[in-house]
TrEMBL record:
InterPro entries: A/G_cyclase (IPR001054), Adenylyl/Guanylyl_Cyclase_3/4 (IPR050697), Nucleotide_cyclase (IPR029787). It comes from Rhodopseudomonas palustris (strain ATCC BAA-98 / CGA009). This is Adenylate/Guanylate cyclase. Pfam families: Guanylate_cyc. One of its GO terms (biological process) is intracellular signal transduction. Residues 209-344 form the Guanylate cyclase domain. One of its GO terms (molecular function) is adenylate cyclase activity.
Length: 399
């Protein structure tokens, strides 16, 4: 084993492995350098827990004959038999190094090691990655070398843990920040915040197709259901919209009780405006179908049908930081958003699920019926409103 090369690897990791920005490539280069320095690695894994509503953690697996495999585990992984019978559970439970020679009878207690044994692996060790907040994550190493790892090879791997822990922690914290921002403010806003657009009043003009929707009869529902059941109802209802909006290129900016505000950004030159509006209409039709098919049952509480309304508009918005004191909201405002809100309320009065402005219909003209002109509160002129031709109006609310 070449001690000078090992020291070079440690220095490279301590400096953030800056020659390669991609985390998976950092791992690939680290493993290849360790092999070149005389540590005969067959498989290396890095396992990091994260803060995400759906994902428990990320895994990076390198093999000597291939690229790095990147994957994720869901929040229920700790309940799985695979995890409960994994060497990593010992590491996570006690924060200790775990090592098994695969000719040791005790190794047969772990099904995962049976898989490695089938690959002719002779030795396996998992070392804790200690983060500054006291949490433990893991790096595992396997070799096919006869007799397993030597003492000097294990010492080199152990020496690598402090700089590797700091590097993985920095990458993990940025990943967590990105995930949380994406979860709470959306991808576009999250990217801007990470880029440093955090000053109050920092805003850009954005041309966008605007989506504003709400759940019909929300007040009556919330009055008749326990709060914890109402939260589940809203989550099921929003699930029908968020996936459709995201899959068609939109971004959810805000949930407001039962309301949802989303934008579909349009290029500065407007060249893709018709295509963007077409995608938003496709998302609206997808939501219309999924919400019509939605029902909710839990215990003695049952909702057999849901109704919602959505207004589609297109216009210029101001997109950025708005708020007071040290509490800011990254959102969009402007007359176009206000008009979308007026249209959404009008949809309820007209018994319509989907309504659109003339500006929107001018870019996406197929399948609309002219519903007439209506005065809009706060606007000096009436707005011509359009409804889908394949939709019959439902019961009118307070017209």
């Amino acid at each position: 084993m070449h001690s000078e090369q090992i020291r070079g690897i440690l220095d490279w990791l301590s400096d953030g492995a800056r020659s390669e920005p991609d985390p998976a490539m950092k791992m690939k280069l680290t493993c290849e350098q360790l092999v070149a320095a005389g540590i005969p690695l067959h498989r290396v894994g890095v396992f990091v827990e994260t803060l995400h509503p759906d994902i428990y953690g990320h895994r990076f697996i390198w093999r000597a004959d291939g690229e790095v495999e990147v994957g994720s585990t869901t929040q229920d992984v700790e309940m799985s038999e695979e995890y409960k019978r994994s060497p990593l559970k010992i590491l996570y439970d006690y924060g200790v190094e775990v090592r098994f020679r695969l000719d040791d009878p005790e190794s047969k207690n772990f099904p995962f090691l049976d898989d490695l044994r089938a690959e002719a692996v002779t030795d396996y060790t998992a070392l804790p990655l200690r983060f500054l907040d006291g949490t433990y994550h893991a790096a595992s190493f396997a070799t096919k070398q006869p007799g397993g790892f030597t003492d000097s090879q294990l010492s080199a791997l152990r020496a690598m843990m402090p700089p590797l822990s700091r590097l993985v922690e920095v990458i993990s914290l940025r990943d967590i920040a990105t995930n949380l921002l994406d979860t709470y403010v959306g991808n576009r806003a999250g990217a801007r915040i990470l880029a440093g657009q955090i000053r109050r009043g920092h805003a850009d003009h954005l041309r966008a197709a605007i989506w504003l929707s709400d759940l019909r009869g929300f007040s009556a529902l919330s009055d008749g259901l326990p709060p914890e059941i109402m939260v589940k109802v809203l989550n099921a209802y929003f699930d029908c919209q968020v996936a459709a909006i995201a899959s068609h290129g939109g971004e959810v900016l805000k949930f407001m009780g039962d309301g949802l505000l989303a934008v579909f950004p349009i290029a500065d030159d407007g060249a893709d405006a018709a295509e963007v509006c077409g995608r938003m209409l496709a998302a609206a039709n997808e939501c219309r179908a999924s919400i019509a098919a939605l029902s909710f049952v839990e215990g003695s509480y049952a909702i057999e049908s849901f109704r919602f309304g959505v207004a589609l508009h297109v216009g210029q918005v101001l997109y950025g930081n708005i708020g007071g004191g040290n509490r800011l909201d990254f959102t969009c405002i402007g007359p176009a958003v206000n008009l979308a809100a007026r249209l959404e309320r009008l949809a309820a009065r007209l018994g319509r699920t989907v309504v659109a402005s003339s500006d929107f219909v001018g870019l996406c003209s197929e399948g609309w019926s002219d519903l007439g002109e209506f005065p809009m509160a706060g606007f000096s002129h009436a707005e011509r409103v359009h409804g889908l031709t394949d939709e019959m109006p439902l019961a009118v609310e307070g017209l």
